[in-house]
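Worked problem 6 (solution included).
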Amino acid sequence: MIPRKTRRGGAQMTDLPTPLVSTAWLADNLGAPDLVILDCTTVQEETPDGSYAFVPGRASYDDAHIPGAVFCDVLGTLGDKDDPRPLMMPKAGAFKEAMEALGVGDNSAVVVYDRGIGSWAARVWWSLKTYGFDEAAVLDGGFKKWTAEARPVSGEAPEIKPASFTPRYRPERIVSKDEVHKIIEEGGATLVHSLSLKEFTGEAAPMPRAGRIKGSINAPASSLVDPETGVYLSKDKLAAHFDAAGARKSDRVITYCGGGVAACNNALALAVLGFDDIAVYDGSLAEWTADPDAPMETG
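Solution. The predicted structure is:
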């Protein structure tokens, strides 16, 4: 029997654990009338010049997905099309339209997953949180764990139910370049670089300028999950990961990465640890390194 709880004006809802939900919970709740499952898979492909680009994982979805899951084109529908910066948070009207097209409404319970380490799912989860929607969780272990447990998959796209989504923007969850400058000058928050140590030090330089935002510390989002299972580390291990980096030395934490995706995975992990005052620098290094006057550090 599916547990129920009352939310949003008396509506009965599936009792969704957040911010992470287990594969066992999802298997038990498949088919719940208010449950929306979003496959947020985005894949990395090599380009002719030897670099790489991210593309929607629609082909993987069409091949096999969790039964009832709807494909979410994160790159195509959840970025601000009027902004030249990559994958910036869409405006309220565009986000409302995108969610309703996916069948996500005010009375939905949403589970998001991908086929990687959870960063793309975390981006969608953070976007929902930014627009005031809290009944969303990332599937712990994602599609990797689901299939490793021989759980059912489907190649059929489900019928999307009509939905009405009300965006309630929370500006404190997204910070701008100007706000990051202010933090560098005045303090008040910890800046967390979410990419690899080599990118943090400048040894690897995929962005126009090498290194990190001045004053930031390094907590790679790639270290949040068990590489064998894809499951997030225990709370004790996550706490040790962030403590070793110095990420929890202040109440407010600002995460960033290359384009605002891995940063959302760190935001998710911090939420698992009970942090409330978390924000993502949406422009991240794509914006910061394009400004020659924005202070950087290496080494």
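Discussion: The radius of gyration is 19 Å.
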